[in-house]
Design goal:
By secondary structure, the protein is of the alpha+beta class. The protein is built from 2 helices and 10 strands; from the N terminus they run ββββββββββαα. The radius of gyration is 16 Å and the shape is globular.
Length: 136
């Protein structure tokens, strides 16, 4: 069953990584998973690392390893502003493992309730998520 299409755009600090019509956007906010179809109510939300899925059709899905960021749904347009977005096939497991180990080391060295600890926890979560996506 085809759904009405709408515009979806994914932007990173390096530039645009996706801009096309889709039938559905599936991602994860700090409040939980969300699926967006055409005519969705307006939303502004913070995003967590996850697998971003952009459904061009039921069978054609564009996937990204999505970092932290923001989601805005307004009218018939969805915009995701994220720290990073990579096709899972382009992720390097070895590099991700190194980054995860560094985040874990930083977490052990960070003081309780410190900004350094929050950054290390966020990095650890991102690298764990990205690693999971390389094996799916």
């Amino acid at each position: 069953m085809a759904h009405t299409k709408f515009e979806a755009e994914v932007l990173t600090p390096e530039g645009e990584v996706f801009n096309d019509e889709v039938e559905m956007v599936s991602t994860r906010t700090t409040a939980g998973s969300i699926g967006i179809l055409a005519n969705h109510a307006p939303v502004l939300a913070m995003l967590e690392p996850t697998e971003l899925r952009l459904y061009k059709t039921e069978s054609e899905v564009v996937r990204f390893a999505q970092g932290e960021g923001y989601l805005q749904v307004a009218g018939d347009r969805v915009m995701l502003l994220v720290e990073e977005a990579h096709p899972p096939s382009e992720l390097d497991q070895g590099l991700l493992r190194e980054r995860l180990q560094e985040a874990e080391r930083q977490l052990q060295e960070a003081g309780e309730d410190s900004e350094r600890r929050r950054v290390a926890e966020r990095d650890k979560s991102r690298w764990e998520t990205f690693l999971r996506l390389t094996s799916s």
